Amino acid sequence: MKILSIETSCDETGISLVDAQGDINKPEFNILEEYVASQIETHREWGGVVPDLAKREHDKKLPILFKKIKDRDVDLLTVTVGPGLDPCLWSGINFARDLKKKNFPNTELVGANHLEGHLYSFLLDEDRPENLKDVFPAVQLVVSGGHTILVYMKDMGSWEKLGETRDDAAGESFDKVARMLDLPYPGGPEIEKASKKGDSEAIDFPRPMINSDNYDFSFSGLKTAVLYYLRENEKVAEKDVAASFQQAVVDTLTTKTFKAANEYNARSIMVSGGVAANSVLRNSFESQAKEKDLNLFIPPIQYNTDNASIIAVASYINNLVGKSYELKADPNLNL
Ligand code: KG4
Ligand code: ZN
What we know:
Strand content: 15-25%
Bound molecules: 5'-O-[(R)-(carboxyoxy)(hydroxy)phosphoryl]adenosine, zinc ion
Structural class: alpha/beta
Order of helices and strands: EEEHHEHEHEEEHHHHEHEH
């Protein structure tokens, strides 16, 4: 099945053509064509994503990216309907509807959940076993700019949310702390860069809810602790603040994920979403998974941040299990 997918939920415009095959225990994906137009430069001067500007950019880029798709032999059309920024989601949905009308009148068009895109992105990890029966049960951390969610995956078709952030998402806290340090948007990669020469033990920032007896997270207290630290200390080594903040986030995320893996007898851990691009986070998960003899799946970096290929993957899985989403923007859609 060849799937043409569209992603416009935030500040990346993505179109992919993905060949998907196999049943629910052995799905296989071959990315045939893939285009992502990043809007980072457009939003950088504003210090964050401006929804109306983002919509305008999506409207402009979608037809340009679609023109690049050479193979027009498509079996399924899919577009992200949420979660995300309302005007941006509508930009993708309306484009997909027009596309169906003009170019693919006989092809089905279905909605996709962006978070399921991240959830199933581990399927693009080349190291994962061919037969997924060897992977489950698993615990997955979905950690992006808008979400921080722990999921228990019994198998491909049945998973449940264990907990999520009660306030800021982990990625959001990276972006906000970066702003406090006068680092440009998006903050995650900038904090990572700044922290390289810093001392992660220089400042003892809090690790909120690290020992709570549930799987929820909270990052707004940590952000405020950084703010107070910057206010109260005149001479501050930026690199140490960045490294110590980053370590506090990484410790919280890894501790809770491994605790859940232990409680649920997981064989594997998965990490997905934009923050999973962070190398300190990846290394920490890698060394602890090795120590505890757990499989670890983190998709290649280009599939952590937003793109349309993960949307095609999620739509294929939903197609197999008979799940679908209405073609209507749903900014607060969750897992
Ligand atoms: O998944 P994503 O591209 O978009 C959402 O679905 O939200 O995630 C974007 C988030 C941003 O908050 C960004 O700062 C963060 O992921 N991020 C990182 C890194 N790269 C992106 N955070 C920490 N370290 C990174 N290297
Ligand atoms: Zn995302």
